[in-house]
């Protein structure tokens, strides 16, 4: 047999292998890409994933879509679209209307449907599918992906942004943590935010229409960019997109499962045991000491409020609970300690006749904003004023964001940071 015939046999064999490879692997690949019915209806049928030049391919999990409620229930929303678009009923490819761009207009509810500008649509669930992403502006924020409007009973509307998880995370990283916190802290933030989002998705606990809120009720998500007065500010950056690419698919797991990776801004020296704050917290959210957040402005804080203001708020609160309460006479710690990470303190409040117990977390919610930053504080009375002295910002369960910054600057890696705040957690890269 001549060399050339061996080569040609080898080439034929190689070709056969290639064909076989294509026959076996391509359909398998397609099967893997096949989406379930529910995912299909959620999947943005328009824009493609656009995180820019990719140094490595994104994990498939990061390309799944997520539905984020970007507004509350409102009577009217502001809308504009910077490029070509289609309006479709949610879950359908039928085109109701199309245009090259849409100047600033409003979305309102009609008796039974939705109205965009002057045009009425006899449906309660409408989706904007733009041909370029980002291009849809809602209430001063521009979003990647598609936007859905859901008309609720009573005539209010909510806007839901549907986009790939990677694009969502690129904005969460910048929305939750500034660049000055350093790359490792921000990678830890990306991992924790991805885990949180995927755990909500997998648990199926989400609303029928959306998975997460765009606020700190879930995770802060500002979108691609937003207006602040006459300025336009970025909601994501090349740096945050790079963080998402570098951590693609990476999540924290505890006992082989995703879990709710709660996190807060500043723990103030000691994180809180997760179950003290959230009924669904897993035991990985232990109370750990954290001196890494020392440089945060709210590591320690002092504030004061007129007793009369606190009194009125308490009265209102107890009335809502069907209890009466007159003028506040005294307020003292009844259980827990402001420096303990095991429980959220409770206060005893007295008027002339009765006393009630109230959780420091409830007090924090009740009192005017910008006064009480966490449930970990003590109160002293000073004539007609109450003086608060506390530590940290937020509930202090799970990762401490300022602590992550401190650890990153001290040379810890993102993985070490995540494992520090979620005891026993393992980091896994999902495909
Ligand atoms: Zn801390």
Structure summary:
The protein has 431 residues and is α+β, with helices and mostly antiparallel strands. It has helices at residues 3-33, 37-42, 60-63, 165-176, 183-203, 238-246, 307-320, 360-366, 401-409, 414-421; strands at residues 65-69, 76-81, 85-89, 97-99, 102-109, 114-116, 119-121, 125-130, 136-138, 141-143, 146-151, 157-164, 212-213, 225-228, 231-234, 250-254, 257-258, 263-264, 300-306, 330-335, 346-350, 355-359, 377-382, 385-391, 399-400, 426-429. A hairpin with a 4-residue loop joins strand 21 (346-350) and strand 22 (355-359).
Architecture overview:
This protein is an alpha+beta fold. The protein has three domains: 100 residues, no CATH class; 144 residues, no CATH class; 92 residues, no CATH class. It contains ten helices and 26 strands. The protein has an eight-stranded antiparallel β-sheet with strand order 7-6-5-2-9-10-14-15, with no helix packed on it. A seven-stranded mixed β-sheet has the order 4-3-8-11-12-1-13. Strands 17-16-26 form a three-stranded antiparallel β-sheet. The longest helix is centred in the first third of the chain and has 31 residues. Zinc ion binds next to helix 9.
């Amino acid at each position: 047999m001549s060399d050339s015939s061996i080569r040609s046999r080898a080439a034929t064999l190689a070709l056969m292998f290639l064909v076989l490879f294509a026959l076996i692997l391509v359909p398998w690949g397609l099967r893997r890409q096949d989406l379930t019915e529910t995912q299909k209806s959620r999947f943005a049928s328009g824009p493609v994933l656009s995180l820019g030049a990719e140094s490595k391919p994104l994990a498939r999990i990061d390309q799944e879509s997520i539905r984020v409620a970007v507004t509350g229930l409102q009577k009217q929303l502001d809308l504009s679209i910077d490029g070509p678009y289609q309006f479709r009923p949610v879950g359908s490819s039928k085109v109701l209307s199309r245009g090259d761009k849409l100047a600033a207009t409003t979305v309102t509810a009609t008796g039974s449907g939705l109205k965009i500008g002057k045009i009425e649509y006899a449906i309660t669930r409408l989706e904007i599918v733009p041909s370029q992403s980002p291009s849809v502006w809602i209430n001063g924020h521009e979003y990647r992906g598609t936007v859905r409007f859901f008309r609720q009973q009573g005539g209010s509307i909510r806007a839901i942004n549907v986009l790939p998880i990677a694009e969502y995370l690129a904005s969460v990283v910048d929305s939750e943590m500034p660049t000055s916190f350093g790359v490792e802290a921000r990678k830890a933030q990306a991992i924790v935010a991805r885990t949180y989002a995927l755990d909500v998705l997998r648990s199926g606990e989400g609303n029928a229409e959306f998975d997460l809120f765009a606020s700190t009720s879930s995770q802060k998500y500002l979108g691609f960019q937003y207006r602040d007065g006459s300025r336009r500010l970025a909601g994501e950056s090349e740096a945050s997109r790079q963080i998402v690419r570098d951590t693609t698919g990476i999540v924290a797991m505890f006992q082989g499962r995703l879990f709710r990776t709660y996190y807060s801004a500043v723990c103030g020296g000691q994180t809180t045991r997760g179950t003290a704050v959230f009924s669904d917290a897993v035991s990985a959210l232990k109370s750990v000491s954290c001196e890494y957040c020392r440089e945060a402005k709210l590591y320690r804080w002092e504030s004061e409020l007129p007793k009369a203001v606190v009194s009125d708020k308490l009265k209102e609160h107890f009335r809502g609970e069907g209890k009466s309460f007159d003028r506040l006479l005294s307020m003292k710690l009844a259980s827990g300690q402001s420096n303990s990470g095991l429980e959220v303190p409770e206060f005893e409040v007295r008027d002339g006749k009765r006393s009630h117990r109230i959780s420091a977390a409830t007090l924090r919610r009740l009192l005017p904003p910008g006064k009480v930053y966490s449930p970990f504080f003590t109160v002293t009375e000073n004539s007609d004023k109450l003086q608060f002295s506390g530590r940290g910002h937020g509930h202090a369960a799970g990762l401490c964001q300022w602590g992550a910054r401190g650890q990153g600057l001290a040379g810890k890696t993102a993985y070490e940071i995540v494992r520090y705040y979620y005891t026993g957690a393992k980091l896994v890269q999902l495909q």
